[in-house]
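Why DDIAS protein? Reviewers of the renewal asked for a concrete example.
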Amino acid sequence: MNSVRGLLAASVISVQNSHFIYPACQKCFSRLILDSRYVLFNCLKCGCTGEAKDASYRYRLSLKIADTNDLFDITVFGSCLDPFFGVTAENLQRCIQDLNQLSGETNIDTSPEVLVQAVETCFIGKRFIFGV
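Here is what the prediction returned.
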């Protein structure tokens, strides 16, 4: 893995997916596997297990960006996205679950379309400085 780090000023071309939050292991930040009934979780990377209701959530925003010369696929993780969403990933996940319950959505991981549109409006066409 290349250890050279730098800053890249680039514009967001598109948002690559509609899942902005994931259940994250508190030890290694890897994605947790929730059982089919959303009762237990398991981390495949470090072996951490627990009850799904105790899982923490983290932001994960996949973007296609462009600078003056190149296109890049990047993923932005964690609390650096809190100011853009206005709440922590934990709180946004609770809001999404509440909205999905009210609308009768059975897939609790589905982001409401209005959230997807808001994220696209906030990021697409805007220029940011990314640490890479």
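The chain has three helices and eight strands. This is the kind of structural detail the renewal will allow us to pursue systematically.
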